[in-house]
Amino acid sequence: xxIPFQIAESNFTLVLFGxxxxxxxxxxxxxxYELEKEKRMPKDYAIVGYARTPMTDEAFRRFFxxxxxxxxxxxxxxxxxxxxxxxxxxxxxxxxxxxYKTFLKQLxxxxxxxxRVRLAYFSVPPxxxxxxxxxxxxxxxxxxxAPLRLIIEKPxxxxxxxxxxxxxxxxxNFKPEQIYLLDHYLGKEAVSNLLSLRYxxxxxxxxxxxxxxxxxxxxxxxxxxxEGRANYFDHVGILRDMVQSHLLQVLAYLTMYSPRTKxxxxxxxxxxxxxxxxxxxxxxxGQYMGYNKEPGIPKDSQTETYTALKLLLKHPLxxxxxxxxxxxxxxxxxxxxxxxEFAPRRPQRETPGLPPNRLVIQLQPHEKIEFHxxxxxxxxxxxxxxxxxxxxxxxxxxxxVEHGRLLLDAIAGKQGLFLGFExxxxxxRVIDPLQKSCDHARSKHCExxxxxxxxxxxxxxxxxxxADGFEWFNSTS
Length: 477
Ligand SMILES: NC(=O)c1ccc[n+]([C@@H]2O[C@H](COP(=O)([O-])OP(=O)(O)OC[C@H]3O[C@@H](n4cnc5c(N)ncnc54)[C@H](OP(=O)(O)O)[C@@H]3O)[C@@H](O)[C@H]2O)c1
Fold this sequence. Notes:
Elements: E1 12-17, H1 22-37, E2 45-51, H2 57-71, H3 77-84, E3 87-91, H4 97-110, E4 117-122, H5 129-138, E5 149-153, H6 160-173, E6 179-182, H7 189-200, H8 202-207, E7 213-221, H9 230-255, H10 264-276, E8 278-288, E9 306-313, E10 322-328, E11 335-342, H11 346-350, E12 358-364, E13 368-376, E14 384-392, H12 402-412, H13 421-440, E15 448-451, H14 459-466
The structure holds NADP nicotinamide-adenine-dinucleotide phosphate (NAP).
NADP nicotinamide-adenine-dinucleotide phosphate binds near residues 27, 53, 126 and 155.
Protein backbone atom coordinates (compact mmCIF):
# COMPACT_ATOMS: atom_id res chain seq x y z
CA UNK A 1 0.00 0.00 0.00
CA UNK A 2 1.33 3.45 -0.88
CA ILE A 3 1.50 5.66 2.20
CA PRO A 4 1.02 9.41 1.64
CA PHE A 5 4.07 11.12 3.12
CA GLN A 6 3.30 14.05 5.37
CA ILE A 7 4.83 17.31 4.21
CA ALA A 8 4.64 20.82 5.66
CA GLU A 9 1.20 21.89 4.46
CA SER A 10 1.95 25.57 4.50
CA ASN A 11 4.76 28.10 4.33
CA PHE A 12 5.79 28.87 7.87
CA THR A 13 8.01 30.76 10.28
CA LEU A 14 9.18 28.96 13.39
CA VAL A 15 10.43 31.22 16.17
CA LEU A 16 12.49 29.23 18.67
CA PHE A 17 12.59 30.92 22.07
CA GLY A 18 15.64 29.59 23.93
CA UNK A 19 17.40 28.61 20.69
CA UNK A 20 20.80 28.73 22.43
CA UNK A 21 19.83 25.85 24.77
CA UNK A 22 20.05 22.12 25.15
CA UNK A 23 16.67 21.00 23.79
CA UNK A 24 17.17 23.04 20.62
CA UNK A 25 20.60 21.55 20.07
CA UNK A 26 19.80 17.94 20.94
CA UNK A 27 16.34 17.51 19.49
CA UNK A 28 14.98 20.40 17.48
CA UNK A 29 17.83 21.19 15.07
CA UNK A 30 18.36 17.53 14.09
CA UNK A 31 14.58 17.11 13.62
CA UNK A 32 14.35 20.20 11.40
CA TYR A 33 17.35 19.04 9.35
CA GLU A 34 15.66 15.65 8.87
CA LEU A 35 12.51 17.35 7.55
CA GLU A 36 14.62 19.19 4.96
CA LYS A 37 16.60 16.05 4.08
CA GLU A 38 13.39 14.04 3.64
CA LYS A 39 11.95 16.82 1.43
CA ARG A 40 9.07 17.62 3.80
CA MET A 41 9.71 21.37 3.94
CA PRO A 42 7.83 23.92 1.84
CA LYS A 43 9.70 26.26 -0.50
CA ASP A 44 9.23 29.25 1.75
CA TYR A 45 10.03 28.78 5.41
CA ALA A 46 12.10 30.50 8.09
CA ILE A 47 13.57 29.18 11.33
CA VAL A 48 14.40 32.08 13.61
CA GLY A 49 16.29 31.55 16.86
CA TYR A 50 15.42 33.98 19.65
CA ALA A 51 17.50 34.07 22.85
CA ARG A 52 19.48 36.41 25.07
CA THR A 53 22.91 34.97 24.17
CA PRO A 54 24.41 37.39 21.65
CA MET A 55 24.92 35.71 18.27
CA THR A 56 24.95 36.82 14.65
CA ASP A 57 22.97 34.94 11.98
CA GLU A 58 26.24 33.39 10.87
CA ALA A 59 27.24 32.28 14.38
CA PHE A 60 23.78 30.75 14.90
CA ARG A 61 24.03 28.87 11.60
CA ARG A 62 27.39 27.43 12.73
CA PHE A 63 25.79 26.47 16.08
CA PHE A 64 22.92 24.76 14.23
CA UNK A 65 25.27 22.98 11.82
CA UNK A 66 27.50 21.72 14.65
CA UNK A 67 24.47 20.33 16.51
CA UNK A 68 23.33 18.44 13.38
CA UNK A 69 26.83 17.07 12.71
CA UNK A 70 27.05 15.83 16.29
CA UNK A 71 23.99 13.65 15.72
CA UNK A 72 24.56 12.73 12.05
CA UNK A 73 28.01 11.50 11.26
CA UNK A 74 27.45 11.65 7.48
CA UNK A 75 24.83 14.31 6.90
CA UNK A 76 23.37 15.04 3.50
CA UNK A 77 25.54 18.10 2.70
CA UNK A 78 23.13 19.52 0.11
CA UNK A 79 20.21 19.34 2.57
CA UNK A 80 22.30 20.95 5.29
CA UNK A 81 23.27 23.78 2.95
CA UNK A 82 19.62 24.25 1.94
CA UNK A 83 18.32 24.46 5.50
CA UNK A 84 21.07 26.84 6.65
CA UNK A 85 19.84 29.35 4.06
CA UNK A 86 16.49 29.46 5.95
CA UNK A 87 18.01 30.12 9.38
CA UNK A 88 18.18 33.44 11.23
CA UNK A 89 18.83 34.67 14.75
CA UNK A 90 17.72 37.51 16.97
CA UNK A 91 19.37 38.46 20.26
CA UNK A 92 16.51 39.57 22.46
CA UNK A 93 15.06 39.81 25.93
CA UNK A 94 12.14 37.64 27.09
CA UNK A 95 10.88 40.30 29.50
CA UNK A 96 11.08 43.59 27.56
CA UNK A 97 8.22 44.41 25.24
CA UNK A 98 10.40 46.65 23.08
CA UNK A 99 12.51 43.65 22.13
CA TYR A 100 9.46 41.89 20.65
CA LYS A 101 8.45 44.95 18.66
CA THR A 102 11.90 45.26 17.10
CA PHE A 103 11.91 41.53 16.46
CA LEU A 104 8.58 41.67 14.67
CA LYS A 105 9.92 44.35 12.33
CA GLN A 106 12.94 42.16 11.58
CA LEU A 107 10.68 39.16 11.03
CA UNK A 108 8.78 41.04 8.34
CA UNK A 109 12.02 41.58 6.41
CA UNK A 110 12.79 37.86 6.61
CA UNK A 111 9.30 36.79 5.48
CA UNK A 112 8.97 37.55 1.80
CA UNK A 113 5.40 36.32 1.63
CA UNK A 114 2.98 37.06 4.50
CA UNK A 115 0.75 34.12 3.61
CA ARG A 116 2.19 31.68 6.14
CA VAL A 117 1.77 30.15 9.57
CA ARG A 118 3.78 31.51 12.47
CA LEU A 119 4.74 29.22 15.33
CA ALA A 120 6.43 30.12 18.61
CA TYR A 121 8.32 27.20 20.18
CA PHE A 122 8.99 27.43 23.91
CA SER A 123 12.42 25.90 24.36
CA VAL A 124 13.06 27.89 27.56
CA PRO A 125 12.65 26.88 31.22
CA PRO A 126 9.01 27.28 32.40
CA UNK A 127 9.91 30.31 34.58
CA UNK A 128 10.31 32.30 31.39
CA UNK A 129 6.87 31.33 29.95
CA UNK A 130 4.62 34.00 31.55
CA UNK A 131 6.70 36.94 30.28
CA UNK A 132 6.81 35.52 26.78
CA UNK A 133 3.03 34.84 26.77
CA UNK A 134 2.32 38.38 27.93
CA UNK A 135 4.64 40.01 25.43
CA UNK A 136 3.50 37.87 22.52
CA UNK A 137 -0.06 38.89 23.27
CA UNK A 138 0.70 42.60 23.26
CA UNK A 139 2.22 42.51 19.79
CA UNK A 140 0.15 41.18 16.89
CA UNK A 141 1.88 38.02 15.68
CA UNK A 142 -1.06 36.63 13.77
CA UNK A 143 -0.60 36.23 10.03
CA UNK A 144 -2.99 36.50 7.09
CA UNK A 145 -3.13 32.74 7.06
CA ALA A 146 -3.58 31.90 10.76
CA PRO A 147 -3.33 33.05 14.35
CA LEU A 148 0.05 32.47 16.01
CA ARG A 149 0.49 28.88 17.29
CA LEU A 150 2.34 28.23 20.55
CA ILE A 151 4.23 24.95 21.03
CA ILE A 152 5.02 24.25 24.67
CA GLU A 153 7.20 21.33 25.84
CA LYS A 154 6.30 19.25 28.86
CA PRO A 155 6.55 19.39 31.88
CA UNK A 156 3.42 21.56 32.12
CA UNK A 157 4.03 23.24 35.40
CA UNK A 158 5.57 21.81 38.51
CA UNK A 159 2.37 20.54 40.11
CA UNK A 160 -1.40 20.78 39.66
CA UNK A 161 -1.57 24.37 40.94
CA UNK A 162 1.15 25.63 38.59
CA UNK A 163 -0.35 23.69 35.66
CA UNK A 164 -3.67 25.47 36.33
CA UNK A 165 -1.83 28.78 36.45
CA UNK A 166 -0.20 27.99 33.13
CA UNK A 167 -3.60 27.25 31.61
CA UNK A 168 -4.97 30.54 32.94
CA UNK A 169 -1.99 32.52 31.62
CA UNK A 170 -2.39 30.89 28.22
CA UNK A 171 -6.17 31.19 28.01
CA UNK A 172 -6.06 34.84 28.96
CA ASN A 173 -4.45 35.66 25.65
CA PHE A 174 -4.76 32.68 23.34
CA LYS A 175 -7.53 30.45 21.99
CA PRO A 176 -7.44 26.64 22.43
CA GLU A 177 -6.68 26.15 18.73
CA GLN A 178 -3.49 28.20 19.17
CA ILE A 179 -2.13 26.04 22.00
CA TYR A 180 0.00 22.94 21.27
CA LEU A 181 1.12 21.14 24.46
CA LEU A 182 3.88 18.80 23.39
CA ASP A 183 5.07 15.57 24.98
CA HIS A 184 7.52 14.15 22.46
CA TYR A 185 6.58 10.57 23.47
CA LEU A 186 3.35 11.13 21.54
CA GLY A 187 5.36 11.67 18.38
CA LYS A 188 6.88 8.19 18.74
CA GLU A 189 5.32 5.69 16.35
CA ALA A 190 5.80 2.99 19.00
CA VAL A 191 3.56 4.83 21.47
CA SER A 192 0.66 5.41 19.03
CA ASN A 193 1.11 1.82 17.98
CA LEU A 194 0.16 0.62 21.48
CA LEU A 195 -3.44 1.58 20.81
CA SER A 196 -3.37 0.43 17.18
CA LEU A 197 -1.99 -3.00 18.09
CA ARG A 198 -4.79 -3.57 20.57
CA TYR A 199 -7.59 -2.57 18.26
CA UNK A 200 -6.25 -3.97 14.98
CA UNK A 201 -5.67 -7.49 16.35
CA UNK A 202 -8.62 -9.41 17.63
CA UNK A 203 -6.41 -11.67 19.78
CA UNK A 204 -5.16 -8.60 21.64
CA UNK A 205 -8.55 -6.89 21.77
CA UNK A 206 -9.92 -10.06 23.36
CA UNK A 207 -7.05 -10.88 25.70
CA UNK A 208 -6.08 -7.46 26.94
CA UNK A 209 -8.69 -7.11 29.66
CA UNK A 210 -8.96 -7.78 33.37
CA UNK A 211 -10.28 -11.25 32.62
CA UNK A 212 -6.96 -12.51 31.21
CA UNK A 213 -4.23 -10.10 32.33
CA UNK A 214 -2.64 -10.56 35.75
CA UNK A 215 -0.45 -7.45 35.74
CA UNK A 216 1.09 -4.78 33.52
CA UNK A 217 4.64 -3.49 33.84
CA UNK A 218 5.90 -0.25 32.28
CA UNK A 219 9.63 0.32 32.47
CA UNK A 220 11.79 3.24 31.35
CA UNK A 221 15.41 2.66 32.35
CA UNK A 222 18.22 5.03 31.47
CA UNK A 223 21.85 3.99 31.61
CA UNK A 224 22.92 7.63 31.68
CA UNK A 225 23.08 9.82 34.80
CA UNK A 226 21.80 13.40 34.91
CA GLU A 227 24.44 14.47 32.36
CA GLY A 228 25.23 17.79 33.99
CA ARG A 229 21.59 18.97 34.12
CA ALA A 230 21.78 19.41 37.89
CA ASN A 231 19.65 22.55 38.17
CA TYR A 232 16.85 21.10 36.12
CA PHE A 233 16.87 17.57 37.47
CA ASP A 234 17.33 18.22 41.17
CA HIS A 235 14.33 20.54 41.09
CA VAL A 236 12.16 18.06 39.22
CA GLY A 237 13.08 14.41 40.01
CA ILE A 238 12.17 11.29 38.04
CA LEU A 239 8.49 11.25 39.07
CA ARG A 240 7.86 14.60 37.44
CA ASP A 241 10.37 14.18 34.63
CA MET A 242 9.37 10.71 33.40
CA VAL A 243 6.21 9.47 35.08
CA GLN A 244 3.93 12.53 35.15
CA SER A 245 3.76 12.86 31.40
CA HIS A 246 5.70 10.25 29.37
CA LEU A 247 4.87 7.07 31.26
CA LEU A 248 1.31 7.96 32.23
CA GLN A 249 0.74 8.71 28.54
CA VAL A 250 2.11 5.25 27.67
CA LEU A 251 -0.26 3.78 30.25
CA ALA A 252 -3.18 5.74 28.80
CA TYR A 253 -2.50 4.59 25.21
CA LEU A 254 -2.16 1.03 26.42
CA THR A 255 -5.36 0.88 28.43
CA MET A 256 -7.81 3.45 27.00
CA TYR A 257 -10.93 2.62 25.03
CA SER A 258 -10.54 3.24 21.33
CA PRO A 259 -11.87 6.78 20.78
CA ARG A 260 -15.13 7.04 18.84
CA THR A 261 -13.56 9.47 16.39
CA LYS A 262 -10.02 10.55 15.59
CA UNK A 263 -10.70 14.07 16.76
CA UNK A 264 -8.37 15.61 19.30
CA UNK A 265 -11.10 15.95 21.91
CA UNK A 266 -12.21 12.30 21.58
CA UNK A 267 -8.62 11.03 21.97
CA UNK A 268 -7.85 13.36 24.86
CA UNK A 269 -11.11 12.49 26.58
CA UNK A 270 -10.41 8.73 26.53
CA UNK A 271 -6.88 9.24 27.84
CA UNK A 272 -8.12 11.52 30.61
CA UNK A 273 -10.72 8.88 31.55
CA UNK A 274 -7.97 6.34 32.22
CA UNK A 275 -5.76 8.82 34.05
CA UNK A 276 -8.66 9.93 36.26
CA UNK A 277 -9.28 6.32 37.25
CA UNK A 278 -5.76 5.79 38.69
CA UNK A 279 -5.33 5.02 42.39
CA UNK A 280 -1.79 4.82 43.76
CA UNK A 281 -1.03 1.69 45.76
CA UNK A 282 2.62 1.82 46.78
CA UNK A 283 5.65 3.92 45.92
CA UNK A 284 9.38 3.33 46.17
CA UNK A 285 11.86 6.17 45.75
CA GLY A 286 15.54 5.64 45.06
CA GLN A 287 18.70 7.63 44.46
CA TYR A 288 21.86 6.38 42.79
CA MET A 289 24.97 6.35 44.93
CA GLY A 290 27.08 9.40 44.23
CA TYR A 291 24.16 11.54 42.98
CA ASN A 292 24.69 14.05 45.80
CA LYS A 293 28.34 14.41 44.78
CA GLU A 294 27.46 15.48 41.22
CA PRO A 295 28.39 19.13 40.48
CA GLY A 296 25.51 21.43 41.44
CA ILE A 297 23.60 18.86 43.55
CA PRO A 298 23.19 19.71 47.26
CA LYS A 299 24.82 17.14 49.57
CA ASP A 300 21.53 16.55 51.36
CA SER A 301 19.40 16.34 48.18
CA GLN A 302 16.32 14.15 48.64
CA THR A 303 15.48 14.13 44.92
CA GLU A 304 14.61 10.69 43.58
CA THR A 305 16.54 9.45 40.55
CA TYR A 306 14.47 6.23 40.58
CA THR A 307 10.87 5.40 41.30
CA ALA A 308 8.69 2.32 41.25
CA LEU A 309 4.92 2.58 41.64
CA LYS A 310 2.00 0.25 41.97
CA LEU A 311 -1.15 1.70 40.42
CA LEU A 312 -4.70 0.42 40.21
CA LEU A 313 -7.24 1.57 37.63
CA LYS A 314 -10.94 1.94 38.33
CA HIS A 315 -11.50 1.70 34.58
CA PRO A 316 -14.07 -1.01 33.60
CA LEU A 317 -11.56 -2.88 31.40
CA UNK A 318 -8.83 -3.03 34.03
CA UNK A 319 -10.40 -3.07 37.48
CA UNK A 320 -8.22 -5.16 39.82
CA UNK A 321 -5.23 -5.43 37.45
CA UNK A 322 -2.13 -3.90 39.07
CA UNK A 323 0.03 -1.68 36.90
CA UNK A 324 3.66 -1.37 37.96
CA UNK A 325 5.72 1.52 36.66
CA UNK A 326 9.44 1.97 37.22
CA UNK A 327 11.89 4.49 35.88
CA UNK A 328 15.37 5.56 36.83
CA UNK A 329 18.72 6.93 35.83
CA UNK A 330 22.19 5.33 35.90
CA UNK A 331 20.74 1.85 35.57
CA UNK A 332 22.12 -1.25 33.87
CA UNK A 333 20.84 -0.41 30.39
CA UNK A 334 18.60 1.83 28.35
CA UNK A 335 15.33 -0.04 28.06
CA UNK A 336 11.75 1.17 27.64
CA UNK A 337 9.07 -1.45 27.48
CA UNK A 338 5.54 -2.50 28.22
CA UNK A 339 5.04 -6.02 29.54
CA UNK A 340 1.59 -7.57 29.77
CA GLU A 341 1.54 -10.71 31.87
CA PHE A 342 -1.32 -13.14 31.49
CA ALA A 343 -2.94 -15.04 34.31
CA PRO A 344 -1.35 -18.46 34.98
CA ARG A 345 -2.90 -21.61 33.51
CA ARG A 346 -2.66 -25.09 35.00
CA PRO A 347 0.99 -25.83 34.03
CA GLN A 348 2.19 -22.61 35.66
CA ARG A 349 0.04 -23.19 38.73
CA GLU A 350 1.38 -26.72 39.12
CA THR A 351 5.06 -26.09 38.29
CA PRO A 352 6.79 -23.41 40.35
CA GLY A 353 9.20 -21.32 38.29
CA LEU A 354 7.39 -21.81 34.97
CA PRO A 355 7.04 -18.30 33.50
CA PRO A 356 3.66 -16.75 32.69
CA ASN A 357 2.62 -15.95 29.12
CA ARG A 358 3.82 -12.47 28.33
CA LEU A 359 3.39 -9.93 25.59
CA VAL A 360 6.44 -7.67 25.56
CA ILE A 361 6.29 -4.45 23.56
CA GLN A 362 9.72 -2.87 23.56
CA LEU A 363 9.88 0.82 22.68
CA GLN A 364 13.61 1.48 23.20
CA PRO A 365 16.43 0.93 22.26
CA HIS A 366 14.76 -0.84 19.30
CA GLU A 367 11.09 -1.34 18.74
CA LYS A 368 10.06 -4.96 18.84
CA ILE A 369 7.23 -7.18 19.94
CA GLU A 370 7.57 -10.59 21.61
CA PHE A 371 5.16 -13.27 22.74
CA HIS A 372 6.34 -15.57 25.50
CA UNK A 373 4.45 -18.83 25.29
CA UNK A 374 4.88 -22.26 26.83
CA UNK A 375 5.73 -25.23 24.69
CA UNK A 376 5.89 -28.88 25.63
CA UNK A 377 9.27 -30.44 26.19
CA UNK A 378 9.67 -33.62 24.17
CA UNK A 379 8.81 -36.87 25.90
CA UNK A 380 6.07 -38.71 27.67
CA UNK A 381 5.51 -36.19 30.42
CA UNK A 382 3.70 -32.92 30.17
CA UNK A 383 6.61 -30.64 30.99
CA UNK A 384 6.96 -27.22 29.45
CA UNK A 385 9.50 -24.55 28.69
CA UNK A 386 9.45 -20.96 27.48
CA UNK A 387 9.02 -20.33 23.75
CA UNK A 388 9.74 -16.74 22.77
CA UNK A 389 8.60 -15.62 19.39
CA UNK A 390 9.12 -12.06 18.27
CA UNK A 391 9.94 -9.56 15.58
CA UNK A 392 11.39 -6.09 15.35
CA UNK A 393 8.74 -3.51 14.51
CA UNK A 394 10.15 -1.63 11.54
CA UNK A 395 8.56 1.63 10.62
CA UNK A 396 7.85 0.99 6.98
CA UNK A 397 5.46 3.83 6.31
CA UNK A 398 5.95 7.53 6.91
CA UNK A 399 8.83 7.46 9.38
CA UNK A 400 10.11 10.58 11.09
CA VAL A 401 11.70 11.44 14.43
CA GLU A 402 9.14 12.57 16.97
CA HIS A 403 9.83 16.32 17.03
CA GLY A 404 9.71 16.38 13.22
CA ARG A 405 6.35 14.62 13.10
CA LEU A 406 4.87 16.89 15.77
CA LEU A 407 6.15 20.02 14.04
CA LEU A 408 4.50 18.99 10.77
CA ASP A 409 1.25 18.44 12.67
CA ALA A 410 1.49 21.89 14.29
CA ILE A 411 2.16 23.50 10.89
CA ALA A 412 -0.94 21.72 9.56
CA GLY A 413 -3.00 22.80 12.59
CA LYS A 414 -3.56 19.20 13.74
CA GLN A 415 -3.73 18.83 17.52
CA GLY A 416 -4.50 15.09 17.88
CA LEU A 417 -0.97 14.19 19.01
CA PHE A 418 -0.78 17.06 21.48
CA LEU A 419 -2.04 17.04 25.05
CA GLY A 420 -5.16 18.58 26.54
CA PHE A 421 -5.37 20.25 29.93
CA GLU A 422 -7.88 17.71 31.25
CA UNK A 423 -5.39 14.84 30.93
CA UNK A 424 -2.48 16.95 32.21
CA UNK A 425 -4.46 17.85 35.35
CA UNK A 426 -5.47 14.21 35.82
CA UNK A 427 -1.80 13.17 35.67
CA UNK A 428 -0.81 15.84 38.20
CA ARG A 429 -3.57 14.58 40.52
CA VAL A 430 -1.75 11.24 40.56
CA ILE A 431 1.72 12.69 41.18
CA ASP A 432 0.96 15.69 43.41
CA PRO A 433 0.03 13.87 46.64
CA LEU A 434 3.21 11.76 46.37
CA GLN A 435 5.36 14.84 45.93
CA LYS A 436 3.60 16.91 48.55
CA SER A 437 3.93 14.34 51.30
CA CYS A 438 7.66 14.12 50.56
CA ASP A 439 8.10 17.89 50.55
CA HIS A 440 6.53 18.37 53.96
CA ALA A 441 6.86 15.17 55.93
CA ARG A 442 8.95 12.08 55.86
CA SER A 443 6.25 9.47 55.40
CA LYS A 444 7.27 5.85 54.74
CA HIS A 445 7.04 6.12 50.96
CA CYS A 446 9.44 9.09 51.05
CA GLU A 447 12.32 6.96 52.25
CA UNK A 448 15.17 7.17 49.72
CA UNK A 449 16.67 3.79 48.84
CA UNK A 450 20.23 4.05 47.57
CA UNK A 451 21.20 1.90 44.60
CA UNK A 452 24.43 1.19 42.79
CA UNK A 453 25.08 2.80 39.42
CA UNK A 454 24.73 0.16 36.70
CA UNK A 455 22.30 -1.95 38.75
CA UNK A 456 18.60 -2.62 38.14
CA UNK A 457 17.55 -0.24 40.93
CA UNK A 458 16.90 -0.60 44.66
CA UNK A 459 15.87 -3.90 46.26
CA UNK A 460 12.76 -2.22 47.64
CA UNK A 461 11.42 -1.99 44.08
CA UNK A 462 11.70 -5.77 43.73
CA UNK A 463 9.94 -6.21 47.06
CA UNK A 464 7.11 -3.91 45.92
CA UNK A 465 6.14 -6.25 43.07
CA UNK A 466 7.08 -9.50 44.86
CA ALA A 467 4.60 -8.64 47.62
CA ASP A 468 1.85 -9.33 45.04
CA GLY A 469 3.45 -12.56 43.83
CA PHE A 470 5.00 -11.11 40.63
CA GLU A 471 8.52 -10.36 39.40
CA TRP A 472 9.80 -7.54 37.21
CA PHE A 473 10.48 -8.82 33.74
CA ASN A 474 13.99 -7.72 32.71
CA SER A 475 14.70 -8.35 29.07
CA THR A 476 18.08 -9.83 28.29
CA SER A 477 18.44 -8.18 24.88
N1 LIG B 1 16.58 19.18 27.08
C1 LIG B 1 15.69 18.25 26.90
O1 LIG B 1 16.00 17.15 26.41
C2 LIG B 1 14.22 18.49 27.26
C3 LIG B 1 13.34 17.42 27.14
C4 LIG B 1 11.98 17.64 27.41
C5 LIG B 1 11.55 18.88 27.79
N2 LIG B 1 12.42 19.92 27.93
C6 LIG B 1 11.87 21.23 28.29
O2 LIG B 1 12.17 22.14 27.24
C7 LIG B 1 12.48 23.41 27.75
C8 LIG B 1 13.88 23.82 27.34
O3 LIG B 1 14.81 22.87 27.86
P1 LIG B 1 16.39 23.06 27.73
O4 LIG B 1 16.98 21.82 28.26
O5 LIG B 1 16.76 23.51 26.36
O6 LIG B 1 16.66 24.26 28.75
P2 LIG B 1 17.97 25.13 28.92
O7 LIG B 1 19.07 24.69 28.01
O8 LIG B 1 18.25 25.24 30.37
O9 LIG B 1 17.44 26.57 28.47
C9 LIG B 1 17.21 26.94 27.11
C10 LIG B 1 17.58 28.40 26.93
O10 LIG B 1 16.70 29.20 27.71
C11 LIG B 1 17.40 30.33 28.25
N3 LIG B 1 17.29 30.29 29.71
C12 LIG B 1 17.91 29.48 30.60
N4 LIG B 1 17.51 29.73 31.85
C13 LIG B 1 16.61 30.73 31.77
C14 LIG B 1 15.83 31.42 32.72
N5 LIG B 1 15.89 31.14 34.02
N6 LIG B 1 14.99 32.39 32.27
C15 LIG B 1 14.93 32.66 30.96
N7 LIG B 1 15.65 32.03 30.03
C16 LIG B 1 16.48 31.08 30.41
C17 LIG B 1 18.85 30.18 27.81
O11 LIG B 1 19.00 30.99 26.65
P3 LIG B 1 19.51 32.50 26.70
O12 LIG B 1 20.20 32.74 28.00
O13 LIG B 1 20.43 32.57 25.52
O14 LIG B 1 18.29 33.30 26.54
C18 LIG B 1 18.97 28.75 27.43
O15 LIG B 1 19.94 28.55 26.41
C19 LIG B 1 12.30 23.32 29.25
O16 LIG B 1 10.98 23.71 29.57
C20 LIG B 1 12.50 21.84 29.53
O17 LIG B 1 11.85 21.44 30.70
C21 LIG B 1 13.74 19.74 27.66
